[in-house]
Amino acid sequence: MHRRRELESKLRGETLGRRGLLKRYEGLTQLRIAPDLHVVKIGGHGIVDYGAPVLKPLAEEIGLLSRKHQMMVVTGGGVRVRHIMDIGLDLGMPTGVLAELSGKVSEQNAIMMSVLLSEYGGTRIHSADLLELPMLLRMGILPVTHGTPPYGLYEKPSEIGMIPAHRTDTGAFLMAEVLGAKSCILVKNVDGLFTESPFDNPDAELIEEITAAELLDLGMEDLVLEDKVVEMLLDAKCVRKVHIINGHVPGTLTRLLDGERVGSIIKA
Question: CA-to-CA distance for 197 and 213, rounded, in angstroms?
């Protein structure tokens, strides 16, 4: 009788799904590739779509900050994603195809943002370039990439409806997590996380700090960030909080990196 041949290792003969095995590795320290990096996600809908009056001052602020801080800029999609998604949904496109389509738009925004930041070393990079980041940062490059995570056609079915659940906020968070970044900052068109949409209810209250579990328990109808970011924050190994700030107010990002309390914090 032939016996299965196994390479000698602590995982020999394991299925990699046994709970006892998984718990054995809980709490291990994960290597941080870029521990001083600030991942700054620029919203497509909340920032890029407003054009030069909002984007140019923010780009200049990011460029100047990049001379003192390690930064990577991540772009969202915006109104053009909504447009292509609307057409795709009407045509009955599968969720994976919708993910492929929407990713093309955030890539376009990354190209524009890198050109806008060229004075400060802004350079468009791809998902496959993340492991080159330590070298790029030492060369004085300000990396710019798009936030759509590369699930593409392998995007998992959404819990509700067909719109892909993993979008650009999630992509920025996952990049920050795998790089072991110092912070993950979502730049929006509101001052932070509110109890309700401040556009619909001007009396909505700003939530300055909340845990991911508490936020999920609230079951809010609409969040300023993607639900998946909050869910993933519960199990994150490196990124233990996410900042949400207003990119329409010049100097807000500077104040945050200077250690001032601004916007909202969602903690693991």
Answer: 20
d(CA 268, CA 6): 39
pLDDT, one tens digit per residue, over 138-179 is 999 999 999 999 998 999 999 889 999 999 999 999 999 999
Q: Has this prediction a pTM greater than 0.85?
A: yes
For 147-207, where are the E strands, in sequence order? 183-188, 193-194, 206-207
In whole angstroms, give the CA distance from residue 66 to residue 81. 29
Name the phi and psi angles at 34, rounded to 5. -135, 75
32-267 belongs to which homologous superfamily? Acetylglutamate kinase-like (3.40.1160.10)
Domain ranges of the chain: 32-267
User: What is the C-alpha end-to-end distance of the chain, expressed in Å?
Assistant: 52
Mean pLDDT, the chain, rounded, equals 93
How do beta strands 206-207 and 193-194 pair?
A: antiparallel
Burial of 150 (0-12, 13-18, 19+ CB in 10 A): middle
CB atoms within 10 A of CB 191: 19
